[in-house]
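Protein modeling request. Please complete all fields; requests missing the sequence field cannot be processed.
Requester role: graduate student
Desired output: 3D structure, C-alpha cell encoding
Chains: 1
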Amino acid sequence: MKKFRFANGELSQNGKGLIMGILNVTPDSFSDGGEFFNAEDAISHAKKMLSDGADIIDVGAMSTRPGSVPVPYREEIRRLEPVLKELCVIDNAVISVDTVNPETADFALSMGVNIINDVSGCFNIDMASVVKKYRAGWIMTHTANVPSGSVVDYPDGVVNAVKDFFDSFLCDCEKYGIGNEYICLDPGFGFAKTTDDNIELLKNLEKIIRPDVAFLAALSRKRFIGEITDTPEADERLAGTLTADIIALMKGSDLLRVHDVKETRQAIAIYNSIYNKGTTIYG
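Delivered output (283 residues):
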C-alpha cells in the first residue's frame, strides 16, 4: 500500500482515489481567477471542499495559466498568509501550497502547511533544502522547465520524456537524502504539451507510474479537454474532466487534483464499487 508522507502525517491508500481540492487565491487563474481572491471567500470554499470529501487542499497564490506573469514571493506570501492562518489549524486538514519559490515554501511550512506542490519542473537545491528541513511532502510536476504556455518537441515521445525526468528527479532526491515516501509525481498535463501529447500521456500513464512513489493526475478543466470536447469555457468541462480522471485512476494514479470535489468523490465511489472495494483513509 502506497504512503505519501509529509510534515506531521501521511496519507495512505486502501483503495483508489485521493482528492486534492484546488484553491486559487489569485486574480488571474485560468478557470476560477478572482473567485476566491478574497481571504474570507477562500477560507469558506476550502472548508466546503473538505466537507465534500477533499483529502488535501492545495492553495496557490500565483497563476500558471499560459501568459501569466510571475508573482514575487513576497506577494505570494501576502496573499497566502490570512488563508493559511485559518486552514492550518483545522483538525485533520492536510494543506499543500502551490509554489516554485523556496522562500514562499519556507514561510508556508513554518505556518503548518504539510506539502509543497512544485510546478517548476526542475530539482532546485534551495527548494530541496526547505522540503528536507520540514520533512514536507514534495509534489514535482513535469513542465519541461519552460515558461507557461510554451510547447516543447519531444523527439523520443512525451511518455519517455516524462519518465526520464522523473527518474532523474528521484535520483537527485535520493542523493540529497529525501526518500521516495516524501515524493509525489505529477506528469504535468497541459504544461509544455500539445493536445496530442496530453492524450498520449493519459493513454500510457501506467508506463511512468512507479509502485513505490505516489502519483498525482491534475486534469481538471484543462485546455486539451476543452479542445477534445469543443468546450471553450473552462468551468463547463466537468464531464470531460471526470472521464479523464477515471481513466487516470484506472491507469494507476493515486491522487486527483480537481476543482469539483463533490462530483469527483461521487465518480470515485462508483469506480471503487466496481474495481476496488477499499476506501480512502488517513494513515
